[in-house]
Design goal:
79% strand; mainly beta
Length: 159
Amino acid sequence: MGLSLRANLLRWATLTPDLGIEWRITPSWGISVNGSWTSWSWNDKDRRYALWEVTPEFRHYIGKEKRGYLGVMFKTGQFIYKFSTTGKQGDLTGGGITGGYQLRLNKALSMDFSLGLGYVHADVEKYKVIEDVRVRQGGKTKHWIGPVQAGVTLVWNVF
């Protein structure tokens, strides 16, 4: 049982800060919530990348030392990206199953290696910027089945 703070280093490597918290209710069960947020632009705002995402997860730890786990997760968020004259923005929602292993580095620190497989639904709108206003150019719904989450996460066991 305990509380830990988490930072997914894979997300940080893409300039998308990701922080989370996990509460181990018992040695075998845990609840975690991670959040990601980024917003940056370059080339006089002609190019843009912004995202926020929240991902709660319920885990069951297995094995003698309770380092491996299987879980279920849900994710929701919004995105905006524009790398050419047409940008895309929208909402995403999904979920799936997760699995991973926590490698203990010392009493306070661990590395959590994880992968989530599942489904993501995204409502995507295309837009062009005309006189500093986003003008809708059409939209569609996208569905994704496959990897929906990956992590190499530094975990600090607070208590």
